[in-house]
Amino acid sequence: MKPPAPRIAESAAAVLIGNELLSGKVHEANLVDLAKTLRALGIALRRVVMIPDELEAIAREVALESAAHDVVFTSGGVGPTHDDITIEGVARAFGVRARIDDSLAGMLRAAYGDRCTEHHLRMALVPDGAELATTADDKWPIVVMKNVWVLPGVPQIFRMKLSVVRAWLQGPAAFHSRAVATRLDEGKLKPLLDQVVEAHPGVDVGSYPKWFDATYKTKVTFDSRDASAVDAALSAFVALLDPGDVASVE
Amino acid sequence: MKPPAPRIAESAAAVLIGNELLSGKVHEANLVDLAKTLRALGIALRRVVMIPDELEAIAREVALESAAHDVVFTSGGVGPTHDDITIEGVARAFGVRARIDDSLAGMLRAAYGDRCTEHHLRMALVPDGAELATTADDKWPIVVMKNVWVLPGVPQIFRMKLSVVRAWLQGPAAFHSRAVATRLDEGKLKPLLDQVVEAHPGVDVGSYPKWFDATYKTKVTFDSRDASAVDAALSAFVALLDPGDVASVE
């Protein structure tokens, strides 16, 4: 299916699937791109879970996250071999069977030509009832079952698929982020931050010490879907500081 | 406490805490080092969860993972400010209160000198009943509540603390890993892999396509706590291949 008007999602979860991630053999590389993409869309990523290539674990986790969030993304476990069981796991999460999709099978036959075997065609499996999401620029579809987007684990391909996510999904409103880098340590900042946090309950205030940087000691961040609330909290915070304690304002 | 005889743990989970990870502002950097450390110790990391700086979410997740695994590691949310609530979350997970630990308070006073305020002393909070784990080389203790190890989020400090983990914990037996890089795609490999997987149920066989590498197409991995079982599965797999299909054997 081609992108319709974007679907609105407020909250998201990600399920990262793969023994190689948990063993430390492979450095997980997809999450940060997904997180940045969702952030830019105004969708709040609320939870990430990393689990092994195990059917029951995938089915249980996908069912839980699908019920708790507007949209869920899986990464990994997509392919033809015995350890590629994400599609079966998603199918089981929704109590349906996996079936071969004819249009995907046709694309695989066109891509592999004479080398295409029944084993390659395992990559045409979809949960019964799934949609296929594409864009004009990326014809190879993403399998979407209800609110679960099944993304590949290979980082280069994962990143390509994020353009499809951007075309199909959107948050209810953008996030606004600002930050102040200060020369004060967190112990000094705490009473000032407590004042700002109490007076600006709609703004998410974060405090991040920078241990190995000479230019500042702590970065204080201000995040909200309400831009004017972010500006107000930041201004209130800066007003509590001596000018010499401010290294930069973003 | 100084390291006694290592404690034996078969399974582990990690709880990564921080809004900045979920927003994509910060690239999570601790997990891969934890995963490699546990792997080298022979401890199986079974599950990782990333959650925001929210007290109930931390308490709920720590309680669940603590019950389901031999050992749990948290990362992040340790410090003096309003968004540093991991200690309170761990305390709540076990139904105890957080209290100031006198020895930690003394260390903070010594480190900060005259600049030490009541706010800095929030970093001396521990769940009631916690132990403090150190080594001769790293005197600043890790707070350990039952089977939950509370690690800092700053990556440079997180990595230093892994030496304490290595001194205190050990798996029941080492993991053994081997791999074959092949010039076959996964569709071709599938029937061969199915044979090996069926005949070697004690070995975890993984298949990882390499999309953007000219030297091989798929890496097949063999993992088990039983080294001879790994060797047997690898040999059985190689015997099914044409020699020209093998790019390398590790």
What is the helix/strand order of chain A?
A: EEHHEHEHEHEEEEHEEHEEHE
Q: Count the strands of chain A?
A: 14
Q: Would you tell me the structural class of the helices and strands of chain A?
A: alpha/beta
What do the pLDDT scores of chain A average to?
A: 95
CATH superfamily of the largest domain in chain A: MoaB/Mog-like domain
What's the number of domains of chain A? 2
Radius of gyration of chain A, in angstroms, nearest whole number? 22 Å
Question: Which architecture of the largest domain in chain A does the CATH hierarchy give at level 2?
Answer: 3-Layer(aba) Sandwich
Describe this structure in words.
Two copies of one chain form a homodimer. Chain A contains eight helices and 14 strands. Chain A has two domains: 7-170, Molybdenum Cofactor Biosythetic Enzyme, Chain A (3-Layer(aba) Sandwich); 176-249, Alpha-Beta Plaits (2-Layer Sandwich). Chain A has 250 residues and is of the alpha/beta class. In chain A, helix 7 (186-199) crosses helix 8. In chain A, strands 3-2-4-9-8-7 form a six-stranded mixed beta sheet, sandwiched between helices. Chains A and B meet through helix 1, helix 2, strand 3, helix 7 and strand 12 of A and helix 1, helix 2, strand 3, helix 7 and strand 12 of B. Strand 3 (44-51) of chain A pairs antiparallel with strand 3 (44-51) of chain B, so a sheet runs across the interface.
